[in-house]
Design goal:
Layout: H1 8-11, H2 31-46, E1 60-64, H3 71-84, E2 88-92, H4 97-111, E3 117-121, H5 129-144, E4 148-154, H6 165-171, E5 175-178, H7 184-197, H8 206-213, H9 218-235, H10 241-247
Parallel strand pairs: 1-4, 1-5, 2-3, 3-4
Helix pairs in contact: 4-5, 7-9
């Protein structure tokens, strides 16, 4: 397998990339997780102000799995679904500490609302000491609230994370799922689905060739679909194996 870097000028042109949704996520072996998330989104759409039956394990979910198993896609999908329904949404990442500060300032207000609000936390395994303390306070606020939903993702099960014991325990207070990598047939199905969403037609030999010769993880493969979409539009040519090989030639690689 040749781990060829994507041509930067194409890999960074993602303005046309469809937003992450539950519909454009291929569940593979993650059917239980996807079913739970769909149920929650349906409830947001139909019972936004009903907090009479809202137990913690229906609004507190952590999932973990290997890189490329869709952890971040699902967080983005829930955030996009919440925003589309007019709910307040707060995405938290280790690289954006100011977002944590702003959310903490709003937690008391959000805790009194009957309407749902949504917090997503990515890469919980990468939190520094300051963000771990902030995360702990946020989780306590969610537990005490009426309708705040929190969705969290990391690389390992709660018990195996290198975090404070009291924080590891809290991560398991709600539902916990493991996200699974797709097998080759599932990867091809997911890539075909992504291509169709972009109106991109691939010749039948393209995807099997990419799986054998290119990266096998979904983030890089999805990025290549975007690059192929851009290159096909630029050259006004169909996406065939010769076009793919041409795109991946060294002259297209920006070092």
């Amino acid at each position: 397998m040749n781990n060829i870097p994507l041509p930067r000028q194409f890999a960074l042109d993602i303005s046309h990339t469809p937003k992450a949704t539950l519909d454009n996520f291929l569940p593979g072996k993650d059917l239980a997780l996807i079913s739970s998330l769909r149920h929650l989104v349906d409830n947001w759409a139909t019972k936004q102000s009903d907090s009479t039956e809202n137990p913690l394990n229906q609004r507190w979910i952590y999932w973990w799995g290997p890189e490329g198993s869709g952890r971040s896609h699902l967080l983005s999908a829930l955030g996009n679904a919440a925003e589309q329904l007019g709910l307040q949404c707060f995405p938290l990442r280790p690289s954006e500490p100011i977002s944590w500060v702003r959310l903490e300032e709003k937690m008391a207000f959000l805790g009194e609302l009957d309407a749902p609000s949504v917090i997503t936390v990515d890469d919980v395994d990468r939190l520094d000491e300051r963000l771990v303390a902030s995360f702990f306070r946020i989780l306590n606020g969610v537990q005490a609230s009426k309708a705040i939903h929190i969705f969290m993702a990391g690389k390992a099960a709660p018990a195996n994370l290198e975090l404070r014991e009291d924080l590891r325990t809290r991560l398991g207070w709600g539902l916990v799922f493991k996200t699974q990598l797709l097998d080759d047939d599932e990867k091809i199905q997911a890539l075909e689905q992504a291509a169709q969403a972009r109106g991109l037609v691939l010749s039948p030999d393209v995807l099997p060739w990419l799986l054998n010769r290119f990266y096998r993880d979904m983030p890089n493969l999805m990025a290549l679909i975007d690059a192929l979409d851009s290159y096909s539009l630029e050259t006004k040519r169909a996406v065939t194996l010769p076009l793919v090989r041409e795109l991946l030639q060294p002259k297209h690689i920006t070092q």
